[in-house]
Amino acid sequence: MKGINGYLIDIEFNVTPIQGEKKGTKGYLIIFWDITERRKSEELRRQFNQELELQVKIKTKELNDLLEQQNLYQEQILKSSAFKSDFMASMSHELRTPLNSIIGFSDVLLEKYYGDLNDKQDIYVHNVRSSADHLLDLINDILDISKIEAGKLKLELENVNFSDIANRVEATLKPLYMEKNLKFEVVEVGKEKIIIVDRKRFMEIIYNLLSNAIKYTKEGGVKLEILETKDDWVINISDTGIGIASEDFDIVFKEFKRVNSEYTNSIEGTGLGLPLTKKLIELHGGILSFTSELGKGSTFTFTLPKLK
Ligand code: ADP
User: Fold this and answer.
1) Which terminus of the chain faces fewer neighbouring Cβ atoms within 10 Å, N or C?
2) Is-above-0.85 flag for pTM?
3) pLDDT tens digits for 286-298?
């Protein structure tokens, strides 16, 4: 027979039947333990666990509330940024219509279809025309950035011959680099490069980077180069221009930001070209980066995944 276990208040005891010393006699062995301390510490542990459970519940609730709040904020941010993009897109669209009419009527005046302009009138109408052109470029850039941010700009991908694009952009930029007496070089090693891109947008990317290279170069030249790795096209646009100081590296991709220098301030610009170019490259699945040394020049490099 097994012993009987039990406890009285804070005492635990065990009773074991035993054989007496004389044959046929029986007795019991009773052992008592003082378990007061053990009970105290068990009680303390129970209280501690209860307190811990309560704290965990409180903290979990606080965390859930915070997460809920964060989700709400995120939703609000997404809503307001979608609203901003929609607003910018429709505003830009509305601005383009009257602007096109200003451009159209300036052209009619400049063509002198309804009579001659005197010298002053000719200068002023030319000013109206070039300001309107500038504003239209700005609006188009804002519209494109908004469309990309709203996920509404869709690429029309097709096979494009790189040399064809390089030649077209070079022809458009010729007056600019010739005027500054700059060298213009296109480097394309090996067989012709057929890339899959949105032709219009790809031309815009190359045009923006090359026109910046020309704009920010006083002497020397600019170079457009295409290389390839197994998975990517790598396109470099380098110049021997004014360069960018390392402390200004992080502003060049920010909208409406321009490096604050005497030379840059003397040149017209909006600070939208690079942010838009970066977004267009990313829309193609590529990456835009650059290296630059103040006073020596810059190289802007972008990759484009080779699509099958
Ligand atoms: P911007 O209309 O001013 O040219 P961008 O967004 O194209 O606007 O470029 C932002 C700024 O980055 C420019 O204002 C200029 O300070 C700097 N930058 C861009 N390209 C070059 C370059 N090739 N060399 C030196 N600075 C450059």
Assistant:
1) C
2) no
3) 999 999 999 999 9
